[in-house]
From TrEMBL:
Higher taxonomy: Eukaryota, Sar, Stramenopiles, Oomycota, Saprolegniomycetes
Pfam families referenced in this protein's UniProt entry, alphabetically: RT_RNaseH
Chain ranges of the Reverse transcriptase RNase H-like domain: 3-59
InterPro entries given in the database record: RT_RNaseH
Protein's recorded name: Reverse transcriptase RNase H-like domain-containing protein
Keyword annotations: Endonuclease, Hydrolase, Nuclease, Nucleotidyltransferase, RNA-directed DNA polymerase, Transferase
Entry superkingdom: Eukaryota
UniProt keyword Lyase present: no
UniProt GO MF annotations: endonuclease activity; hydrolase activity; RNA-directed DNA polymerase activity
Originating species: Aphanomyces invadans
Amino acid sequence: MEVCVFMDASDQVWGAVATQIPPDDLSLPLEEQHHQPLAFLSGNFSSASARWPIVEKEASLSSRPASGSTIW
């Protein structure tokens, strides 16, 4: 199985989901892939990072550790 991570950010909060898909699905369009959820994460930005532009917030998510966030 292959793991995919999807992330999004807004003014104050962020969210992410990790899914797994069969390797053969990688060549399919996203809407035709068979994603199985593995984890859902969310959290708040600190007062300093809450002032960043959205594009910088989303870029920071790729290096954010899961500790201190809510895992669903």
